């Protein structure tokens, strides 16, 4: 555990909590892509199956359970409790164009051809692109609530911090996981355009709206 | 480092 890893995890946790609280407090999931949230629930489910097979640490187990629990709670709020506020017409990204290629790739390129390892690889690849329905939705409506941009910033920051964590681990522990690193780079790059808008607009007190 | 099996990263 190093500082980048810890702050990355906390940033990820902050993102998840911000989104849950935003929906709960406003009693609305307007502007939130339910498809991205389903993909994240799928990511955590397929990644944390090792909860059943190995114990790493209390921290590890607790965080995995919190992430999974919050992911399903978010999906529940969007598709059940506050379904009336869900903006399905704008959430029109075709997720099969992500899930099918990612599934194929995880079978082809993995560390070990075993069910658990393939599912873990699937989750890593899927996470890298799971935000696309949300970004697509924002590009379609041309705007995002400020609280939604804070969520996206924390979520993007988390994987960027993990990149520094992997550099750290490579130098000090000789550890590297090429699948996680390549997918993590892809994931972080997808947020770059958003990071730019966040810094130049949201941090200066303006609402995030895209030019027509 | 070992990368398969239980993962310590989240």
Automatic annotation (TrEMBL), chain A:
It is found in: Cytoplasmic vesicle, COPI-coated vesicle membrane; Endoplasmic reticulum membrane; Golgi apparatus membrane. The chain crosses the membrane at residues 65-82, 119-138, 150-168, 174-199. The keyword Membrane applies. GO terms for cellular component: COPI-coated vesicle membrane; endoplasmic reticulum membrane; Golgi membrane. Its main location: membrane. PROSITE patterns: ER_LUMEN_RECEPTOR_1, ER_LUMEN_RECEPTOR_2. GO terms for biological process: protein retention in ER lumen; protein transport; vesicle-mediated transport. Keywords: Cytoplasmic vesicle, Endoplasmic reticulum, ER-Golgi transport, Membrane, Protein transport, Receptor, Transmembrane, Transmembrane helix, Transport. Pfam families: ER_lumen_recept. InterPro entries: ER_ret_rcpt. The keyword Transmembrane helix applies. GO terms for molecular function: ER retention sequence binding. It is a multi-pass membrane protein. Belongs to the ERD2 family. This is ER lumen protein-retaining receptor.
